[in-house]
Write a structure and sequence with these properties.
Helix content is about 40%, strand content about 15%. It has 9 helices and 10 strands.
Amino acid sequence: MNHFTRRRWLQSTLAGIGAASLSPGWAGQAFGADPIERPGPAHLKLSLAAYSFNSQLSRTGADNSSAAMDLFDFIRFCSELELDATELTGYYFEQPESTEYLLELKYECHRLGLDISGTAIGNDFCHPDGPERDAQLAITRDWIDRAAVLGAPAIRIFAGQMKGDDTEEIAIERCVRGIDQSLEYAATKGVWLALENHGGITASADSMLGIVERVAPSPWFGVNFDSGNFHTADPYADLERIAPYAVNAQIKVSVFPGGEKQSADLERIVAILKAAGYRGYVALEYEEEGDPWTEIPVIIEELRRIAG
């Protein structure tokens, strides 16, 4: 798709929300299976995913009587670490998620000098047509709206899991269609949808890129690079293949070559992102058994040193 065609496509896509013209810079953004084009050297900004405190945070729809913290506590912790941003994972938002509540979160982040690097949902686009699929699409639209209010640039989305006797091809077709439908709405709100390598039909670079290449061209689509989610023979090689498409990145301190857990080579992971020219947020997602209050600051300092 050449410069003129891309520009015309963007103009027609956004005409419904009053975009009469676009700056030339838009033409270099991601379209479908194109790697992200970015000028200059890599630039990494550190964030922390709320999922790092999964056992301590109040969780939506759960009995939270023993919860040790809420998202405001988490935001303050990120501020104390002098991070660039915080990732407010959708599982921990209060119910109902009113606009007032979202604006309180946004206010607190800005007051403490933090960007909101993104949010995340546990969607599943592999359901067949029917009420459950409709519900998944509705949830995604709702979180696009919430991300827009928060000022979060991206949402981490999942592909989903195969259902019953479905083949992988059927699951992929449903997933691609769900992403396409959601991107139509995301484009009207200016929110990126970042497909995460999260097992199932995104368990390998081959399957992940097989989905990426079939998504309809959109400047609001990319990959969430999760360093700990490939359990393939060589996770680092698979990470190298998806890194050029990343619009959001997460780092974990363990990798699973062949399904066997081992300590992650953080310098190698950061080098993969830098080699791809990645410019954006890198969120630590701590999933180990240690105390996150004491372990996370140590890891953040290591990442800060490596990221430069």
